[in-house]
Write a structure and sequence with these properties.
The chain is of the alpha/beta class. The chain contains 20 helices and 10 strands. The structure holds adenosine-5'-triphosphate and magnesium ion (MG). Adenosine-5'-triphosphate binds at residues 126, 360, 363, 365, 367, 385, 387-393, 433, 514.
């Protein structure tokens, strides 16, 4: 229960929903109990009047008695009807307040969780899989909502009804009250166990279902591989196997559920029989009236549903508590990458790495070792090196996706940890190695959440990234949808759209992580020329594999196995005759072979 304390802030926020809600619960229950008494009176009226009616056999008065009798019955009937209508009205208000409140809380929680997720750093996303993250924001929140809404509503409802009904029953006859209530505790216990079993089984089913859907999702994403390797049958068999487990569990659940209602009806029936039997004996003794038996039967039936809810509510609370515990675990996580205290400021673009080393926390792989270099404002710096040499890691550290283990990264002389994180990142134009485009229009992918971007700016960025002509050739041009709901761009087109996304920000520092790899050399040339103009006086860092891309850089850093082994201009490095020169020779040879 202590995990659910987190929700108190919401209860106090929505107290003007919950207080009227409780009031409506009480009123609606009062209108639920009175009709039982009215029915009891009506019953007595019938028994008495039938006797009187019988006595007046043959008298003229008989018709008058008959009229009064049917008139009073009609009156009682109308009264019961009106009372139940009032009960319905207040039940409506009860749901309108308490259940609506639960939806408000659900909304607030989802937003809070989502906002918190976004604060957390990349390391968190590597540790937790997407399914788990999604579950906490959807399934777990839903369970908590079931607690703040239905569970609380039914709990209050049951408590109020219980007090009212028990009071009414004991006021009539203590012995009869005890006997007719006797089966109810058994009902509560049985229902508690049944709902626990049902929940346990549904949890397993839920788990299996999410496994099944992740499986299907992954296989659909990889459908191209499956088809080209003709593995449809193989995949279908795995799917059938997974579905089998799901089916077995679901059938087990149905069995338990099927027992639920018969058991409940049996116990209610038992209660009614006891009421009639014990009550009948007391009517004969003269301690109660026949109307009281009718009244009691209505009470018992009225209690059954709320009492059976008690078992259900208990499991709802347990589940909500477990879910809230999981949610709290995430909400209490502090982001590893914290913003510095300095005021937002304009960056000039002087970057220094001082003896930077970095291990990836979860794998322990040392990606950078004692890396030091300086980049001055306005320089065009290239980073080259074998695959896995640490180039992307270097870019990620500069973007503060991770913080360095040892050493320091300085921006304009200030350690980047001290700078305001949002403001710092916002001045970068970063094109990551793995291009990611959202299922949205091309225009929105390029503008990507920037406020007040004109169409002209979007077109201009596309022109700079040399993708304008491709886009114009699509029927819907910049309004073309990408991704699942739209068209698929070619690898090179994707890279260039993501370049346009970086360029439209007119960043102070530009980082290209190997994002020209799928672009032909002529287009690459065009983009680089555009960059040269755009980034004049600003810093650009280009990670590449082809030496032709980076020949004109002011400085080239050669990385190998996490270390900078050479640095200088193209000419200087050639003169050095080290691994850069070797790489250059190899690439020249390749090109010659290709042109042969
Ligand atoms: N998120 C990560 N978690 C753990 N290890 C990682 C992670 N990313 C990269 N590595 C490891 O760090 C090392 C450097 O990787 P990095 O991505 O920086 O190489 P790279 O030079 O960019 O290579 P490429 O040219 O193939 O892109 C590699 O050994 C890689 O396996
Ligand atoms: Mg890389």
């Amino acid at each position: 229960m202590k995990h659910l304390r987190f929700l108190n802030k919401y209860f106090s926020k929505y107290k003007w929903w919950i207080i009227p809600g409780v009031f409506f619960v009480i009123i609606s229950n009062i209108f639920g109990v009175i009709p039982a008494q009215v029915i009891g009176h009506a019953f007595n009226l019938i028994t008495e009047n039938i006797q009187i009616y019988g006595l007046f056999e043959g008298f003229e008065r008989r018709t008058i008695i008959y009229d009064i009798f049917s008139y009073s019955l009609f009156y009682f009937g109308m009264l019961v009807l009106i009372l139940y209508l009032l009960r319905g009205l207040f039940l409506f208000f009860m749901r309108q307040t308490i259940i609506l409140m639960s939806r408000h809380i659900e909304y607030d929680m989802k937003n809070e969780i989502y906002a918190h997720y976004q604060e957390l750093s990349l390391g968190f996303y590597r540790k937790n899989n997407t399914g788990d993250l999604m579950n906490r924001a959807t399934e777990d929140v839903n369970r908590v909502r079931m607690y703040v809404g239905p569970a609380i509503m039914y709990a209050i409802n049951t408590a109020v009804l219980f007090v009212l009904v028990i009071y009414a029953m004991f006021a009539v006859n203590v012995k009869l009250a005890i006997y007719s209530l006797l089966p109810l505790p058994v009902l509560v216990v049985i229902i508690y166990f049944v709902t626990s079993t049902i929940n346990e089984k549904s949890e397993k089913i839920q788990e299996q279902l999410s496994k099944l859907s992740s499986f299907v999702q992954e296989r659909f994403s990889g459908i191209r591989v499956i088809k080209s390797y003709v593995r449809e049958d193989h995949t279908r068999k795995i799917f059938a196997g997974e579905s089998d487990g799901y089916k077995d569990n679901a059938m087990g659940l149905v069995k338990v559920q099927a027992l639920f209602y018969p058991t409940m009806l049996l116990l209610v029936g038992l209660s009614t029989i006891l009421t009639v039997y014990i009550g009948g004996k007391q009517v004969i003794e003269g301690s109660i009236t026949a109307g009281n038996i009718a009244e009691f039967i209505v009470y018992v039936n009225q209690l059954t549903f709320p009492v059976s809810m008690l078992g259900w509510v208990t499991t709802l609370i347990q589940r909500a508590s477990a879910s809230q515990k999981r949610i709290n675990e995430f909400l209490q996580l502090q982001p590893d990458i914290k913003s510095g205290d300095l005021q937002p400021q304009q960056l000039a673009g002087n970057i220094s790495f001082r003896n930077v080393s970095f291990n990836y926390p979860d794998t322990g792989i040392q990606a950078l070792k004692n890396v030091s270099f300086d980049i001055r404002q306005g320089e065009f710096v290239a980073i080259i090196g074998r695959t896995g040499s640490g180039k992307s890691t270097l870019a990620n550290l500069l973007m503060r996706m991770y913080d360095v283990d040892e050493g320091q990264i300085l921006m304009d002389g200030t350690p980047i940890q001290n700078l305001n994180l949002g403001n710092y990142r916002d001045q970068f134009g970063f094109v990551p190695q793995e291009v990611f485009l959202f299922s949205d229009t091309i225009k929105n992918n390029i503008a990507f959440g920037l406020d007040s971007v004109s169409d002209e700016q979007v077109h201009n960025a596309a022109k700079q990234a040399a993708v304008y002509q491709n886009i114009i050739n699509f029927e819907l041009k910049f309004e073309t949808m990408l991704g699942e709901r739209g068209i698929t761009l070619s690898g090179g087109q994707k890279q260039r759209v993501s370049i346009a996304r970086a360029l439209i920000k007119s960043p102070k520092v530009l980082i290209f992580d190997d994002c020209l790899s799928a672009v032909d050399t002529r287009t690459e040339e065009e983009i680089l020329t555009n960059l040269g103009k755009m980034m004049k006086g600003k810093t650009s860092i280009l990670i590449a594999h082809r030496i032709s891309t980076i020949k004109n850089a002011n400085k080239i850093l050669v990385l190998d196995n996490g270390e900078i082994i050479e640095q200088g201009t193209h000419q200087e490095l050639l003169k050095l005759g080290g691994s850069y020169a070797e790489m250059y020779q190899n690439q020249l040879l390749e090109e010659e072979n290709q042109s042969l």
